[in-house]
Protein backbone atom coordinates (compact mmCIF):
# COMPACT_ATOMS: atom_id res chain seq x y z
CA UNK A 1 0.00 0.00 0.00
CA UNK A 2 2.75 2.45 0.95
CA UNK A 3 4.69 1.61 -2.22
CA UNK A 4 1.62 2.20 -4.37
CA UNK A 5 0.96 5.55 -2.71
CA UNK A 6 4.56 6.63 -3.16
CA UNK A 7 4.45 5.75 -6.84
CA UNK A 8 1.09 7.47 -7.33
CA UNK A 9 2.42 10.62 -5.67
CA UNK A 10 5.38 10.66 -8.06
CA UNK A 11 3.03 10.19 -11.00
CA UNK A 12 0.75 13.15 -10.23
CA UNK A 13 2.86 15.76 -11.99
CA UNK A 14 3.07 13.73 -15.19
CA UNK A 15 -0.57 12.64 -15.16
CA UNK A 16 -1.88 15.97 -16.38
CA UNK A 17 0.51 16.36 -19.30
CA UNK A 18 -0.14 12.77 -20.34
CA UNK A 19 -3.91 13.21 -20.15
CA UNK A 20 -3.86 16.44 -22.11
CA UNK A 21 -1.47 15.03 -24.71
CA UNK A 22 -3.87 12.16 -25.32
CA UNK A 23 -6.87 14.46 -25.37
CA UNK A 24 -8.20 12.79 -22.21
CA UNK A 25 -10.03 14.43 -19.34
CA UNK A 26 -7.92 15.65 -16.42
CA UNK A 27 -9.17 14.03 -13.17
CA UNK A 28 -10.12 16.31 -10.26
CA UNK A 29 -11.42 15.37 -6.80
CA UNK A 30 -13.88 17.73 -5.10
CA UNK A 31 -14.62 17.46 -1.40
CA UNK A 32 -15.69 19.69 1.50
CA UNK A 33 -16.81 19.65 5.13
CA UNK A 34 -20.31 21.08 4.58
CA UNK A 35 -21.85 18.01 2.95
CA UNK A 36 -22.29 16.58 -0.53
CA UNK A 37 -25.57 18.42 -1.19
CA UNK A 38 -24.26 21.84 -0.23
CA UNK A 39 -24.98 24.22 -3.12
CA UNK A 40 -21.43 25.61 -3.05
CA UNK A 41 -19.70 22.37 -4.00
CA UNK A 42 -22.40 21.62 -6.56
CA UNK A 43 -21.96 25.05 -8.16
CA UNK A 44 -18.20 24.51 -8.32
CA UNK A 45 -18.71 21.05 -9.82
CA UNK A 46 -20.96 22.38 -12.59
CA UNK A 47 -18.57 25.24 -13.33
CA UNK A 48 -15.54 22.93 -13.58
CA UNK A 49 -17.34 20.63 -16.01
CA UNK A 50 -17.26 23.53 -18.50
CA UNK A 51 -13.54 24.20 -18.08
CA UNK A 52 -11.16 23.51 -20.94
CA UNK A 53 -7.40 23.25 -20.38
CA UNK A 54 -5.42 23.27 -23.62
CA UNK A 55 -8.54 22.07 -25.41
CA UNK A 56 -9.20 19.19 -23.01
CA UNK A 57 -11.86 18.94 -20.33
CA UNK A 58 -11.42 18.24 -16.65
CA UNK A 59 -13.27 15.35 -15.04
CA UNK A 60 -14.43 16.33 -11.56
CA UNK A 61 -15.73 13.77 -9.07
CA UNK A 62 -17.34 14.68 -5.74
CA UNK A 63 -16.64 12.70 -2.58
CA UNK A 64 -17.98 14.62 0.41
CA UNK A 65 -19.54 13.95 3.83
CA UNK A 66 -23.18 12.93 3.95
CA UNK A 67 -23.99 15.74 6.41
CA UNK A 68 -22.41 18.95 7.62
CA UNK A 69 -19.16 18.04 9.40
CA UNK A 70 -17.78 21.55 9.85
CA UNK A 71 -15.07 21.90 12.47
CA UNK A 72 -14.04 18.25 12.42
CA UNK A 73 -10.54 19.16 11.29
CA UNK A 74 -8.52 16.20 10.05
CA UNK A 75 -10.46 13.64 12.06
CA UNK A 76 -10.10 10.24 10.41
CA UNK A 77 -9.86 7.88 13.40
CA UNK A 78 -9.95 4.53 11.64
CA UNK A 79 -8.27 5.55 8.39
CA UNK A 80 -10.50 3.09 6.56
CA UNK A 81 -12.45 3.37 3.34
CA UNK A 82 -15.09 0.72 4.15
CA UNK A 83 -17.61 3.28 5.38
CA UNK A 84 -21.26 3.73 4.50
CA UNK A 85 -21.44 5.64 1.24
CA UNK A 86 -23.80 6.41 -1.59
CA UNK A 87 -24.16 8.00 -4.97
CA UNK A 88 -26.52 10.58 -6.44
CA UNK A 89 -29.17 8.80 -8.50
CA UNK A 90 -28.92 11.37 -11.28
CA UNK A 91 -25.14 11.76 -11.46
CA UNK A 92 -22.72 8.88 -10.81
CA UNK A 93 -19.86 11.34 -10.30
CA UNK A 94 -21.41 12.72 -7.08
CA UNK A 95 -20.79 10.59 -3.97
CA UNK A 96 -21.34 10.92 -0.23
CA UNK A 97 -19.63 9.24 2.70
CA UNK A 98 -21.15 8.77 6.14
CA UNK A 99 -18.14 10.01 8.07
CA UNK A 100 -15.75 12.91 8.45
CA UNK A 101 -14.36 15.27 5.78
CA UNK A 102 -10.90 13.66 5.53
CA UNK A 103 -12.49 10.20 5.45
CA UNK A 104 -14.55 11.31 2.45
CA UNK A 105 -11.41 12.65 0.75
CA UNK A 106 -9.61 9.37 1.47
CA UNK A 107 -12.56 7.43 0.01
CA UNK A 108 -12.45 9.64 -3.07
CA UNK A 109 -8.79 8.86 -3.64
CA UNK A 110 -8.60 5.20 -2.66
CA UNK A 111 -11.94 3.93 -3.99
CA UNK A 112 -13.58 6.39 -6.40
CA UNK A 113 -10.31 7.40 -8.04
CA UNK A 114 -9.43 3.89 -9.04
CA UNK A 115 -12.98 3.24 -10.27
CA UNK A 116 -13.30 6.50 -12.17
CA UNK A 117 -9.81 7.36 -13.38
CA UNK A 118 -7.96 4.07 -12.96
CA UNK A 119 -5.71 5.78 -10.42
CA UNK A 120 -5.92 7.19 -6.90
CA UNK A 121 -4.03 10.32 -7.97
CA UNK A 122 -6.13 13.09 -9.47
CA UNK A 123 -4.13 15.99 -10.84
CA UNK A 124 -5.69 18.29 -8.23
CA UNK A 125 -7.85 18.12 -5.11
CA UNK A 126 -10.25 20.99 -4.35
CA UNK A 127 -11.94 21.39 -0.97
CA UNK A 128 -14.89 23.79 -0.65
CA UNK A 129 -16.25 26.25 -1.37
CA UNK A 130 -16.65 26.72 2.40
CA UNK A 131 -19.47 28.98 3.51
CA UNK A 132 -17.27 31.23 5.63
CA UNK A 133 -13.63 32.29 5.55
CA UNK A 134 -10.89 30.01 6.86
CA UNK A 135 -8.03 32.07 8.23
CA UNK A 136 -5.61 31.90 11.13
CA UNK A 137 -7.18 30.11 14.06
CA UNK A 138 -9.72 28.26 11.95
CA UNK A 139 -7.24 26.34 9.79
CA UNK A 140 -6.38 23.41 12.10
CA UNK A 141 -10.05 22.72 12.93
CA UNK A 142 -11.36 23.32 9.42
CA UNK A 143 -12.32 20.19 7.52
CA UNK A 144 -12.06 22.28 4.36
CA UNK A 145 -8.40 23.02 5.01
CA UNK A 146 -7.49 19.65 6.49
CA UNK A 147 -8.79 17.92 3.34
CA UNK A 148 -6.19 19.94 1.44
CA UNK A 149 -3.53 19.09 4.03
CA UNK A 150 -4.38 15.39 3.70
CA UNK A 151 -4.16 15.40 -0.10
CA UNK A 152 -0.94 17.41 -0.14
CA UNK A 153 0.71 15.00 2.27
CA UNK A 154 0.02 12.34 -0.34
CA UNK A 155 1.87 14.40 -2.90
CA UNK A 156 -1.25 15.72 -4.67
CA UNK A 157 -1.58 19.48 -5.29
CA UNK A 158 -4.55 20.74 -3.27
CA UNK A 159 -6.53 23.95 -2.77
CA UNK A 160 -8.89 24.92 0.07
CA UNK A 161 -11.54 27.41 -1.06
CA UNK A 162 -13.62 29.61 1.25
CA UNK A 163 -15.90 32.63 0.90
CA UNK A 164 -17.45 35.10 3.33
CA UNK A 165 -20.87 35.81 1.85
CA UNK A 166 -23.77 35.00 4.17
CA UNK A 167 -26.92 36.53 5.56
CA UNK A 168 -25.80 39.05 8.24
CA UNK A 169 -26.35 38.13 11.89
CA UNK A 170 -25.90 40.07 15.11
CA UNK A 171 -22.76 38.09 15.95
CA UNK A 172 -21.33 38.03 12.46
CA UNK A 173 -22.48 41.16 10.62
CA UNK A 174 -21.44 41.63 7.01
CA UNK A 175 -21.16 44.93 5.17
CA UNK A 176 -24.64 46.20 4.25
CA UNK A 177 -23.83 45.98 0.54
CA UNK A 178 -22.68 42.35 0.78
CA UNK A 179 -24.59 39.95 -1.43
CA UNK A 180 -26.30 36.79 -0.28
CA UNK A 181 -24.84 33.40 -1.08
CA UNK A 182 -27.28 32.99 -3.95
CA UNK A 183 -25.67 35.99 -5.62
CA UNK A 184 -22.09 35.35 -4.48
CA UNK A 185 -21.95 31.60 -5.19
CA UNK A 186 -21.65 31.79 -9.01
CA UNK A 187 -18.95 34.47 -8.66
CA UNK A 188 -16.91 32.30 -6.28
CA UNK A 189 -17.40 29.26 -8.52
CA UNK A 190 -16.19 31.22 -11.55
CA UNK A 191 -13.17 32.54 -9.64
CA UNK A 192 -12.34 29.01 -8.42
CA UNK A 193 -12.59 27.65 -11.95
CA UNK A 194 -10.30 30.41 -13.21
CA UNK A 195 -7.76 29.45 -10.55
CA UNK A 196 -7.93 25.77 -11.53
CA UNK A 197 -7.45 26.68 -15.19
CA UNK A 198 -4.40 28.75 -14.28
CA UNK A 199 -2.85 25.96 -12.20
CA UNK A 200 -3.47 23.14 -14.67
CA UNK A 201 -2.60 25.25 -17.69
CA UNK A 202 0.75 26.43 -16.33
CA UNK A 203 3.84 25.03 -18.02
CA UNK A 204 5.39 24.91 -14.55
CA UNK A 205 2.64 22.82 -12.94
CA UNK A 206 4.86 19.73 -12.87
CA UNK A 207 7.16 21.58 -10.44
CA UNK A 208 4.46 21.90 -7.76
CA UNK A 209 6.28 20.93 -4.52
CA UNK A 210 5.09 17.88 -2.62
CA UNK A 211 3.26 18.82 0.55
CA UNK A 212 2.24 22.31 -0.59
CA UNK A 213 -1.40 23.40 -0.57
CA UNK A 214 -3.18 26.70 -1.12
CA UNK A 215 -5.58 28.41 1.26
CA UNK A 216 -7.81 30.71 -0.81
CA UNK A 217 -10.30 33.12 0.74
CA UNK A 218 -12.74 35.17 -1.31
CA UNK A 219 -13.93 38.55 0.03
CA UNK A 220 -17.50 39.79 0.08
CA UNK A 221 -19.35 40.09 -3.20
CA UNK A 222 -21.04 43.47 -3.38
CA UNK A 223 -20.43 47.17 -3.99
CA UNK A 224 -17.71 47.45 -6.65
CA UNK A 225 -17.02 43.71 -6.46
CA UNK A 226 -19.91 41.97 -8.19
CA UNK A 227 -18.33 40.08 -11.10
CA UNK A 228 -15.45 37.62 -11.24
CA UNK A 229 -13.50 40.09 -13.39
CA UNK A 230 -13.62 42.68 -10.60
CA UNK A 231 -11.43 40.63 -8.28
CA UNK A 232 -7.63 40.58 -7.91
CA UNK A 233 -5.50 37.75 -6.55
CA UNK A 234 -2.99 38.66 -3.83
CA UNK A 235 -0.41 36.44 -2.18
CA UNK A 236 -0.77 36.36 1.60
CA UNK A 237 0.37 34.33 4.56
CA UNK A 238 -1.44 32.65 7.40
CA UNK A 239 -1.36 34.38 10.79
CA UNK A 240 0.93 32.30 12.99
CA UNK A 241 0.81 34.64 15.99
CA UNK A 242 -1.09 33.31 18.98
CA UNK A 243 -2.74 36.57 19.98
CA UNK A 244 -6.10 37.62 21.34
CA UNK A 245 -8.62 38.64 18.69
CA UNK A 246 -8.62 42.23 19.99
CA UNK A 247 -4.84 42.56 19.90
CA UNK A 248 -4.61 40.86 16.52
CA UNK A 249 -7.19 43.23 15.02
CA UNK A 250 -5.21 46.23 16.31
CA UNK A 251 -2.01 44.89 14.76
CA UNK A 252 -3.78 44.21 11.46
CA UNK A 253 -5.14 47.76 11.37
CA UNK A 254 -1.73 49.22 12.14
CA UNK A 255 -0.01 46.99 9.59
CA UNK A 256 -2.51 47.89 6.88
CA UNK A 257 -1.79 51.60 7.12
CA UNK A 258 0.11 52.56 4.02
CA UNK A 259 0.89 48.95 3.06
CA UNK A 260 0.65 48.07 -0.61
CA UNK A 261 -1.28 44.79 -0.38
CA UNK A 262 -0.50 44.03 -4.02
CA UNK A 263 3.25 44.54 -3.73
CA UNK A 264 3.83 40.81 -3.36
CA UNK A 265 7.06 41.01 -1.36
CA UNK A 266 7.55 37.30 -0.70
CA UNK A 267 9.62 38.02 2.41
CA UNK A 268 6.93 40.22 3.94
CA UNK A 269 3.52 39.08 2.73
CA UNK A 270 0.37 40.49 4.37
CA UNK A 271 -1.55 38.07 6.55
CA UNK A 272 -4.88 36.82 5.24
CA UNK A 273 -6.98 38.89 7.64
CA UNK A 274 -5.13 42.01 6.53
CA UNK A 275 -6.12 41.35 2.93
CA UNK A 276 -9.74 40.45 3.69
CA UNK A 277 -10.57 42.89 6.48
CA UNK A 278 -8.38 45.90 5.80
CA UNK A 279 -8.17 46.14 2.02
CA UNK A 280 -9.39 49.52 0.73
CA UNK A 281 -13.07 49.55 -0.20
CA UNK A 282 -13.63 48.32 -3.71
CA UNK A 283 -10.20 46.67 -4.04
CA UNK A 284 -11.84 43.21 -4.30
CA UNK A 285 -8.79 41.25 -3.14
CA UNK A 286 -8.67 37.43 -2.95
CA UNK A 287 -6.10 36.13 -0.47
CA UNK A 288 -3.94 33.19 -1.58
CA UNK A 289 -1.66 31.62 1.03
CA UNK A 290 0.92 28.99 0.10
CA UNK A 291 1.20 26.47 2.93
CA UNK A 292 3.31 23.43 3.74
CA UNK A 293 1.92 20.23 5.25
CA UNK A 294 5.31 18.54 5.64
CA UNK A 295 6.72 20.73 8.39
CA UNK A 296 6.06 18.09 11.06
CA UNK A 297 3.76 20.35 13.06
CA UNK A 298 0.54 19.18 11.47
CA UNK A 299 0.35 15.48 12.23
CA UNK A 300 -0.22 15.93 15.97
CA UNK A 301 -3.68 17.39 15.52
CA UNK A 302 -4.95 15.74 12.34
CA UNK A 303 -7.09 13.23 14.22
CA UNK A 304 -8.71 15.64 16.63
CA UNK A 305 -12.40 16.56 16.64
CA UNK A 306 -12.39 20.18 17.72
CA UNK A 307 -16.20 20.37 17.94
CA UNK A 308 -16.44 17.70 20.64
CA UNK A 309 -16.30 20.22 23.46
CA UNK A 310 -17.40 23.50 21.91
CA UNK A 311 -20.60 24.84 20.40
CA UNK A 312 -19.37 26.15 17.07
CA UNK A 313 -17.94 24.77 13.82
CA UNK A 314 -14.28 25.50 14.46
CA UNK A 315 -14.54 29.16 15.47
CA UNK A 316 -13.89 31.00 18.72
CA UNK A 317 -16.24 30.36 21.69
CA UNK A 318 -19.54 32.14 21.21
CA UNK A 319 -19.80 31.43 17.50
CA UNK A 320 -23.34 30.58 16.39
CA UNK A 321 -24.17 26.90 16.55
CA UNK A 322 -25.11 25.36 13.25
CA UNK A 323 -27.36 22.33 13.58
CA UNK A 324 -26.62 19.13 11.73
CA UNK A 325 -28.25 18.90 8.33
CA UNK A 326 -31.13 16.44 8.07
CA UNK A 327 -30.53 13.93 5.33
CA UNK A 328 -32.86 13.78 2.34
CA UNK A 329 -32.79 10.19 1.17
CA UNK A 330 -35.03 10.74 -1.87
CA UNK A 331 -32.20 10.97 -4.40
CA UNK A 332 -29.58 8.78 -2.73
CA UNK A 333 -28.75 5.15 -3.15
CA UNK A 334 -27.04 3.39 -0.25
CA UNK A 335 -24.22 1.24 -1.61
CA UNK A 336 -21.90 0.85 1.38
CA UNK A 337 -21.83 -1.49 4.38
CA UNK A 338 -24.38 -1.23 7.21
CA UNK A 339 -23.99 1.78 9.47
CA UNK A 340 -22.47 0.86 12.83
CA UNK A 341 -22.00 4.27 14.38
CA UNK A 342 -22.52 7.97 13.74
CA UNK A 343 -19.93 10.71 14.15
CA UNK A 344 -20.02 12.08 17.71
CA UNK A 345 -22.38 14.93 18.42
CA UNK A 346 -21.27 18.31 19.71
CA UNK A 347 -21.37 18.88 23.44
CA UNK A 348 -21.39 21.98 25.59
CA UNK A 349 -17.91 23.47 25.56
CA UNK A 350 -15.70 24.31 28.50
CA UNK A 351 -14.43 27.77 27.56
CA UNK A 352 -11.21 27.65 29.58
CA UNK A 353 -10.37 24.17 28.30
CA UNK A 354 -11.17 25.20 24.77
CA UNK A 355 -9.00 28.31 24.93
CA UNK A 356 -5.99 26.28 26.08
CA UNK A 357 -6.51 23.79 23.27
CA UNK A 358 -7.08 26.66 20.87
CA UNK A 359 -3.66 28.08 21.74
CA UNK A 360 -2.09 24.67 21.16
CA UNK A 361 -3.81 23.84 17.89
CA UNK A 362 -3.06 27.31 16.53
CA UNK A 363 0.57 26.33 15.97
CA UNK A 364 -0.14 23.33 13.72
CA UNK A 365 -0.19 25.04 10.31
CA UNK A 366 2.98 26.16 8.57
CA UNK A 367 3.51 28.65 5.76
CA UNK A 368 5.66 27.31 2.92
CA UNK A 369 9.32 28.25 2.80
CA UNK A 370 10.45 31.12 0.59
CA UNK A 371 11.92 28.71 -1.95
CA UNK A 372 8.72 26.65 -2.23
CA UNK A 373 6.60 29.81 -2.29
CA UNK A 374 8.56 31.08 -5.28
CA UNK A 375 7.85 27.84 -7.20
CA UNK A 376 4.09 28.08 -6.68
CA UNK A 377 4.07 31.82 -7.36
CA UNK A 378 5.57 31.04 -10.76
CA UNK A 379 2.61 28.74 -11.46
CA UNK A 380 0.11 31.42 -10.39
CA UNK A 381 1.88 34.44 -11.91
CA UNK A 382 -0.54 35.03 -14.79
CA UNK A 383 -3.47 35.74 -12.46
CA UNK A 384 -1.66 37.46 -9.60
CA UNK A 385 -2.03 41.22 -9.44
CA UNK A 386 1.68 41.42 -8.58
CA UNK A 387 4.27 39.96 -10.94
TrEMBL record:
Keywords: Hydrolase, Metal-binding, Signal. GO terms for molecular function: metal ion binding; nucleotidase activity. Pfam families: SurE. It comes from the Eukaryota. Residues 62-87 are annotated as: Disordered. SUPFAM superfamilies: SurE-like. Residues 29-223 form the Survival protein SurE-like phosphatase/nucleotidase domain. Residues 1-21 form the signal peptide. Belongs to the SurE nucleotidase family. This is Uu.00g040980.m01.CDS01.
